[in-house]
Amino acid sequence: MIITCTRRLEFDAAHRIKHHESKCKMLHGHRYIVEAVFGAKNLDLNGRIIDFGEVKKILGSWIDENWDHNTILCEDDKILGDSISSQTNQKIFYLKTPPTAENMALFLFTEICPKLFLKKDIKCVEIKIYETPNCYANVK
Asked: Long-range contacts: 78-87, Cβ < 8 Å, 24+?
C-alpha cells in the first residue's frame, strides 16, 4: 500500500509552442496549476508523508524562481527569448522540448522533483499541470 498526499501550487507564465498549427504558436500566458503528489509506504511520527508547507517551500520556491511570471520557451526559440530578454531584462526559462503542459509536467517529474526531494522514503509519484481550468496533463 502507498499513501499519497497532494500539494497544489499556482503560477503565471507566458509560453508559445513555436510549431503549433494554430494560435498557440503566438506568445501568450496562462495561470498554471501544479498538483504534486507524493507517496510513501509509511507515515512520519506526526502521521504525514511530508508537511504540505515543505512542498511549498521546496517545489514552490523552485517554481517561483524559474517559472512564475516568466517566459518559458523551447531551446529552439532563442531568437524570441533573446528579444524578450534584451528588452525587459527578463531571464527566459528554456526547456529542451516545446513548453506544452505535458513536457512541463514531465520535466518537473523527471528532472526537478528527484533533485529537490531526496528522502528515500518519500517520492513524487505524480505531477499534474493545468494549463487552463479544463485542460491538464499528468505524469505518473
From this structure: 80/16, 80/18, 80/27
pLDDT digits (tens, 9 = 90+) for 62-95: 999 999 999 999 999 999 999 999 999 999 999 9
Query: Is 30 assigned a catalytic role?
Result: no
Examine the residue annotation and report whether 131 is marked as an active-site residue of this protein: yes
What does pTM read for this prediction?
0.95
**C-alpha–C-alpha distance, residues 98 and 80, integer Å:** 14
Q: How many domains does the chain have?
A: 1
Pick the catalytic residue from 69, 75, 111, 135.
69
Q: Is 83 exposed, middle or buried (0-12, 13-18, 19+ CB in 10 A)?
A: exposed
Could you tell me which residues are beta bridge partners of residue 5?
A: 38
> Which CATH number characterizes residue 9's domain?
3.30.479.10
Residue ranges making up the domain that contains 114: 3-139
Q: Of these residues, 24, 30, 54, 102, which one is catalytic? A: 24
Task: Mark whether 65 is an active-site residue.
Answer: no
Chain segment 1-28, per-residue pLDDT in tens: 889 999 999 999 999 999 999 999 999 9
